[in-house]
């Protein structure tokens, strides 16, 4: 098992001594590079992503698990394709067989409602999920709701970026120890 985190502010290696934590940076490209590197160098059976996310639903808060992943900034609509669908691919949702929330990943920090509506918005999970699915590696994704993806999102994220780590640590201990 390897845990991928965008930023050390979200979770430090000392927070989960004994477990392998890798930092990938922000965005889909950084996530794709690090996920590919981790698979090539370690051949994990499970990759876990932990980080922060904005919620598009005011009733969603705390630590949640996302299990359905969409690429919210894929826009080939001039070709008659719906936003979120990658041209010439059979499926635009990536799913790992567990119940959970939907997460729309894009390379923009969300401060208003995006065209593709999902429960959560983040900047890395879809890339990790797609690479895991392509390589037949199990994937779990836990997000701490740092903001409501609105006009206050950037300030809320700055205030809340590190607040979910205790909940995540407890979740990992409950599941895997």
Which regions are unreliable across 5 or more consecutive residues at pLDDT < 50? none
Q: Tally the helices: what do you get?
A: 4
User: What is the CATH architecture annotation?
Assistant: 3-Layer(aba) Sandwich
Please tell me the overall pLDDT.
95
Question: Structural class from helices and strands?
Answer: alpha/beta
**Helix-residue proportion:** 25-40%
**Domain module tally:** 1
Strands ordered across the widest β-sheet: 3-7-6-4-8
What's the level 1 CATH class? Answer: Alpha Beta
**Which outline best applies?**
globular
Compact description:
With 177 residues, the protein is an alpha/beta fold. The protein is built from four helices and eight strands; from the N terminus they run E-E-H-E-E-E-E-E-H-E-H-H.
Describe the protein.
The protein is globular. A five-stranded mixed beta barrel has the order 3-7-6-4-8. Helix 1 runs parallel beside helix 2. The chain has four helices and eight strands; from the N terminus they run ββαβββββαβαα. With 177 residues, it is α/β, with parallel strands linked by helices. The protein has one domain (2-176): Nucleoside phosphorylase domain (Rossmann fold, 3-Layer(aba) Sandwich). The protein has helices spanning 28-42, 125-134, 153-160, 165-176; strands at 2-5, 20-23, 46-55, 63-71, 94-95, 101-105, 120-122, 138-147. The mean pLDDT is 95.
Give structural attributes.
177 residues; alpha/beta; Rossmann fold; five-stranded mixed barrel; 4 helices; 8 strands; 25% helix
């Amino acid at each position: 098992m390897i845990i991928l985190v965008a930023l050390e502010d979200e979770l430090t290696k000392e927070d989960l001594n004994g477990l392998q934590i890798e930092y990938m940076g922000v965005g889909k490209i950084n996530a794709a590079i690090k996920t590919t590197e981790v698979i090539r160098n370690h051949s994990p059976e499970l990759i876990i992503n932990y980080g922060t996310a904005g919620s598009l639903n005011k009733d969603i808060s705390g630590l949640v698990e996302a299990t359905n992943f969409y690429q919210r900034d894929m826009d080939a609509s001039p070709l008659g394709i719906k936003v979120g669908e990658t041209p010439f691919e059979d499926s635009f949702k990536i799913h790992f067989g567990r119940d959970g929330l939907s997460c729309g990943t894009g390379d923009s920090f969300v401060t208003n409602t995006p065209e593709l509506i999902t429960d959560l918005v983040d900047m890395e999970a879809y890339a990790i999920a797609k690479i895991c699915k392509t390589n037949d590696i199990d994937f779990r994704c836990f997000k701490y709701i740092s903001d409501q993806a609105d006009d206050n999102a950037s300030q809320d994220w700055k205030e809340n970026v590190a607040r979910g780590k205790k909940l995540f640590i407890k979740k990992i201990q409950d599941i895997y120890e």
